[in-house]
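W.,

You were right to be curious about this one. When I first looked at the sequence I had no strong expectations either way, so I just let the prediction run and decided to look at it fresh. Below is the sequence, 70 residues in total, followed by the output.
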Amino acid sequence: AYTVIGSSVNLACRLMQAAEGGLLTPAAQGAARAEALGDAGFALPAGEVPCKGYPAPVAACRVAASGALG
C-alpha cells in the first residue's frame, strides 16, 4: 500500500472536488498540459477557485479534448 501526502496532493483533491465532472488544474500547469495534447486538446481559463486550506483562491483552468465542448 502507498500513502501520498503533501500540498500538491491536497490541492489536486480540492480542484477535483470543484471540477464538477471535468478536469481542473492549476493555471500554471494547464497550459503545459494542453500543449502536450497538441491538436487533441486545449485549456480554458476557469477563474479563481476557492480551495479549503489555502489563504487565497487558486487560478485554475479546465483542460478538455478538442470537440468536447462543441
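Here's what jumped out at me. The radius of gyration is 13 Å. And, maybe more interesting for your project: Residues 43 and 63 are 4 Å apart (CA to CA).

Coffee later to discuss?

I.
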